[in-house]
Amino acid sequence: MLDLGISKMALIGAVALIVIGPEKLPRVARTVGTLLGKAQRYVSDVKAEVNRAMDLDELKKMKESVEEAGREVEKGIYSTKADFEKDWSDVTAGLEGAGSSSDGSTTSSTWEPPPPEYRRPNKNWRLKRGATPQWYKARHGVRRQVQSGAARVARYRPKPK
């Protein structure tokens, strides 16, 4: 890049003062400053866009690798499932004829979960949820009774001395 020191900046300023003149120099300096600012903003925007594109490419590669790993895991699960089912059928092949239990009934090959247990509903749930202690309500200023405006004014009116 440019290596601009104090002495070089002073030399550029002196040449600009002689060439442009003292009347137009402030306006030219402002214009040059705005153009440099715009150029810096443009360069930073281009850098940000390039970084976003690179990040997007990295994310796409990462997504593809994760999807590939997922496919491999899925294939492994299916192959393990097939192996298990084959082994299970080999093991249970000899048990097909011995499907009767001691009481004479035959057992089924599918297992059914037991029906869900009955739960008694909580009947007074509104009462239980609203059972805030009176001392808590009094301490935190929770209104327990409705007061009219006149009663509130009478209650909080300063007492005559």
TrEMBL record:
Q: Which UniProt keywords apply?
A: Cell inner membrane, Cell membrane, Membrane, Protein transport, Translocation, Transmembrane, Transmembrane helix, Transport
Q: Which GO terms describe its biological process?
A: protein transport by the Tat complex
Identify the stretch(es) annotated as Disordered.
Answer: 89-161
> Any stretches that span the bilayer, and where are they?
none
Give membrane topology per the record. Answer: Single-pass membrane protein
Q: According to the lineage, what is the superkingdom? A: Bacteria
Q: Where is the composition biased (Low complexity)?
A: 98-111
Compartments annotated for it: namely: Cell membrane; Membrane
Report the main location listed first in the record.
membrane
Q: Which GO terms describe its molecular function?
A: protein transmembrane transporter activity
Instruction: List the GO cellular component terms.
Output: TAT protein transport complex
Q: Which family would the database say this protein is a member of?
A: Belongs to the TatB family.
Q: How does it assemble?
A: The Tat system comprises two distinct complexes: a TatABC complex, containing multiple copies of TatA, TatB and TatC subunits, and a separate TatA complex, containing only TatA subunits. Substrates initially bind to the TatABC complex, which probably triggers association of the separate TatA complex to form the active translocon.
Give the HAMAP family listed for this entry.
TatB
- Tell me, what does this protein do in biology? Part of the twin-arginine translocation (Tat) system that transports large folded proteins containing a characteristic twin-arginine motif in their signal peptide across membranes. Together with TatC, TatB is part of a receptor directly interacting with Tat signal peptides. TatB may form an oligomeric binding site that transiently accommodates folded Tat precursor proteins before their translocation.
Please give the NCBIfam families that the UniProt record associates with this protein: tatB
User: What is the protein's given name?
Assistant: Sec-independent protein translocase protein TatB
Q: Which organism is it from?
A: Ottowia beijingensis
